[in-house]
Every structure is written in structure tokens, then in C-alpha cells.
Amino acid sequence: MELNSLRYFVCVANYLSFSRAAEHLYISQPALSYHISNLEKELGVSLFIREKRHIALTEAGKILLEEADQVCSHVDAAFQRVAQLTEASANTLRFGFVELLITPCFNHFISPFLLQNPQFHGVTERCSNLHLLDELLLKNSYDFVFSRKFLCDLYRDPKQLATRTVMRDCVSIIVPSSYPCSQYKSIRDLSPLSEYKLLMLDQSVAGDCYDPCFKTLLSAHGYFSAPHDCAVRNMDDLMGQVAAGRGFSIVPFYHTIPLSYHGAKLIRLEGDDVPNADIVLAWNHSSMTPSKEQFLSFINTHFQQPFEIS
Q1: Second label for 15, Cα 20 to 30 Å away, from 83, 250, 274, 283?
Q2: Containing domain of residue 141, as a range?
Q3: Is 310 inside a domain boundary?
């Protein structure tokens, strides 16, 4: 039994007219009669009492109408839900973020896009396994990933993934205001800090943000890891401990994360070997969708140059 046969039967039963039902269904009356006859043969009963000027439902026809009407309604509702799900999926963009980038990137790029394009939905998720960056994008686990340039340079296959710098930033150190170097705006030599404790985010929190780049960088700039260096569970604790004078830290930001603790100061780390901490947008250019193209068009239109926070 075909669903269309049930729909045709319901329409004829509601109109009690083959001609009016055929007109409503946009099919010929002989074709409609053929479908109804086949349905009656399949069921082995007559569904209509046919007379010259009118038709009526048989008892079997009345029973079938009650059930078929519900079946068609349930199927229509199911189709509608599937269509809504498909539409929602097509209009959903999935964003992955390196640690600490969710807030600045959502505020500056994603939120304005969603406000301008309310038909789209954004799903955000922290992305800590950057060594799987290619795989995550190639398997469409994310549509886009916001990362740091030095991390993309480490883990991105340029043949597979495209990137675009969207925001300027740089590596810096956070020191207590009591440290002599806190008066500087930038610093190159970290050897004077060797007597102090180095505080760093635990790798389970920071993902690939620090190792292997930053500890190598510290050594290159004259700082040699001491036994009392320690890992901190989150950025608030790290800033709080620095402000309390318990040590200093190196972080992949200067502009993008506000320093909200009195007693601590950000100092730019300079040097040719300092990693490029600009924020980049990465995506799989071989798997484009209309929603991805629209987001990229928004970025290219509104941010022709990388955004800079003064």
C-alpha cells in the first residue's frame, strides 16, 4: 500500500466527489479512480458506494478514513520535523576555539554575524587537541576553528586547510607590579626573572598553548626552568597568583584578554623568535557549504584587515 493511495482516498472521502478531489490533487479523474480501485482490490473491500450523482463511504470506508486521516497527519508531522531539523542543521555553524579565544572571537566576529543573519545558529566548543586540527576540520567536526597563528603553523596542512588572520595579538608576560621589570612596556631578556617562580596553565587546561613553544622560548630568552615552577588550573587563578606576587607567567595574548587584576601587569615579549600570536580562522576549503560561505563573506566584508584592539 502506497502512502499516496491513502492520501487520494482521504481526499475523495472528504469531498465525496471524484471530480473535486481530482481537481484538488491536480491529477486526472481517471487516474484518481484507478488508484482508489487498486486500493480497494488490495484491501479486498469496497470503500465507496458509487451512484450516478453522488458517492458515499461504506462501513469499511468510514473505518479506513478515521485511521488513514491519522496516519497521513502523523506522516506529515514527521516530514515537517525532519525538514525543520535539516534546515536547522544547514543553518548551524560549529566553531572550535583554542583556549582563551572564545570570548574575544565570539564578541567580535560570531555575535555580529548572528545578529546580522538571525537565520543562522552558532555552536561553540573549546578545542584543545590542536594536533588533530586537520582531522577535526576535514571530518567536519567543526566548520571553523579560531586558533593562534603559531599553533596553526605547527599543526595545519596548508594543502588541506585555509587560514585567514582576523585579529592582531602578541605574546607577553604577566608580572607582579612589585617586580623591577614591571615598569617596562616590552622586554627581550628574561634572565632577570630566573629567580622567580614560573606559573603556567596546566596542559590539561591549556591544551597545546604552551608546550612545546613557550618553554623553548623561555630558555632562548635567558630563563631556565626552576624546580619550583608550577601549573595553575585556570586563567583567573593564574592572574590572581601573579597579582599576589607568587610568580610570573608567559601568555599568548596582550590585547585580546583583559587584565582585570590590580597588582599585575602585562609586558610584551619581543624578539625574532617570539611566536606569532595573531588569531587566525581555519577551515576546510574543500568542503564548503552555503552557511560557511556566508560567514566567510561576512568576515571578508567587515574585516578586510585584521581587527586590532587598541
Answers
A1: 83
A2: 91-168+278-302
A3: no
**Residue 153 and residue 277: Cα distance in Å, rounded?**
11
Question: Are 292 and 143 within 8 A, CB to CB?
Answer: yes
Confidence of residue 294 (pLDDT cuts 50, 70, 90): very high
Calculate the CA dihedral of residues 67, 70, 73, 78 and round it to 10 degrees.
-100
Mean pLDDT of 166-175: 89
* This prediction's pTM: 0.66
- What is the radius of gyration, based on Cα positions, of the chain? 33
Q: For residues 28 and 5, what is the distance between their CA atoms, to the nearest angstrom?
A: 14
Residue 71: per-residue pLDDT: 83
pLDDT at 74 over 90: no
Quick one: how far is CA 217 from the chain centroid? 32
- pLDDT band for 8, please (50, 70, 90 cuts): confident
Q: Are residues 264 and 283 in the same domain?
A: no
**46 in the same domain as 190:** no
Let me know if residue 307 belongs to a domain. no
Cα separation, 210 vs 151, whole angstroms = 10
